Amino acid sequence: MSYYISPRFLDKLAVHITKNYLDIPGVRVPLILGIHGRKGEGKSFQCELVFEKMGIEVTHISGGELESPDAGDPARLIRLRYRETAELIRVRGRMCVIMINDLDAGAGRFDEGTQYTVNTQLVNATLMNIADNPTDVQLPGSYDATPLHRVPILVTGNDFSTLYAPLIRDGRMEKFYWDPDRDEKVGIVGGIFSEDGLSRQEVEKLVDTFPNQSIDFFSASRARIYDEQIRNFIHETGIERVSQRVVNSLEGPPQFRKPNFSLSNLIEMGKLMVGEQQRVENSQLVSQYNRGLYSRNQSAASGGVTPNTQPSSDLYSRNQFASSGGVTPNTQPSSDRASEPVISNKFQKQQVSNSHLSLEAQEQIRQILSQGYRIGIEHVDERRFRIGSWQSCITSPITGEQDAISTVESCLGEYSNEYVRLVSIDPKAKRRVLETIIQRPNGRVDSR
């Protein structure tokens, strides 16, 4: 299979690696090249293609190896692999590099809930030390004065803003943001389907049908085309005999004919995969489970009676009633309210008085929706606020402005003794754009 290498990607890696093997007077060359970008865009695979084309040997380190129950092990591993790779350069007389995949997953700090361990500190300090002194890398407990050969280090990740800032400064790490444009996507996808008879026009049509999907989406859709043949093979063999037929069988591995890789089949398969992605995004079952668990904990803490005991169907009816322009239970006319019994529960008093959304917040919701962003609503009590453990208030997708306003008002009323914040989400980049706290407990302004 003839895979496509982006000229821009090839140029960046070739220049960085070659520059690290040259002695340029008066020039300080960064040892580390950080390749970052969206998930699934083929960063690691493009690197492998470049290494193969240039005849470079690679020493791999996974982001998962950067943590250990024993303090100091990951830092020692990095130093050991660096020294071994420098020895390979000396013995074999060819270019070698160290490749650390998913560095941000192993050494990044994503929020206040991410633990910053001793090993994370030592990994950052070790990489900075190696970048500053690439020919003098020692193992703990021993010292060798012989200078090592300089070994370029390439790291990949999705979000380098989670890394320790001094590590990614320009003198130590050169950054390369990989976001393939349409032509590069067409070239890479064309390489994936190079043996399947798709013309360039069909590849362009496939890419244009799913413009927001990453490279691995198209590779996965190609693999899914074989599902029907494998399903038939299982039925013909018998579900009880599949293991004997596939593993160490005397008949040899099963053979499959080439499936129909027509453009219509690929688009149909791609639409099925897009539907699966949307179901994952819209389900948000964990938020429902967390809300149920939190409500039970609150009930137990208050002796078995919680202030908010409306079933979810009642809450949904209230939201629908408000979105249709009706009057919610918390906005009854004053004449009716005067005939109500005095509310003795302090929580319910706050729910009645604080659930109305301010004009400023309503305008902010309109701006978020007008920009094509999705709205999220999260809440947290005072104890969990200090560790940033927010929980979602939304159990179903918000469909419009009125639905958003009524849902926010319901959350303000239901969690009147908690922090509530509004979240703006970019559905294309699948990231948060803005987080704004719109309610604090008892109207108090927290020092945080």
UniProtKB/TrEMBL annotation:
Transmembrane segments: none
Keywords associated with the record: ATP-binding, Nucleotide-binding
Entry similarity comment: Belongs to the RuBisCO activase family.
InterPro entries: ATPase_AAA_core, P-loop_NTPase, RCA-like, RuBisCO_activase_AAA_helical, RuBisCO_ssu_dom, RuBisCO_ssu_sf
SUPFAM superfamilies associated with the record: P-loop containing nucleoside triphosphate hydrolases, RuBisCO, small subunit
Pfam name, any one: RuBisCO_small
GO molecular function: ATP binding; ATP hydrolysis activity
Record Gene3D superfamilies: 1.10.8.1070, P-loop containing nucleotide triphosphate hydrolases, Ribulose bisphosphate carboxylase, small subunit
Ribulose bisphosphate carboxylase small subunit domain: residues covered: 348-441
Protein name per its UniProtKB record: Ribulose 1,5-bisphosphate carboxylase
Polar residues composition-biased segments: 297-336
Region named Disordered: 297-342
Organism this protein belongs to: Brasilonema sennae CENA114
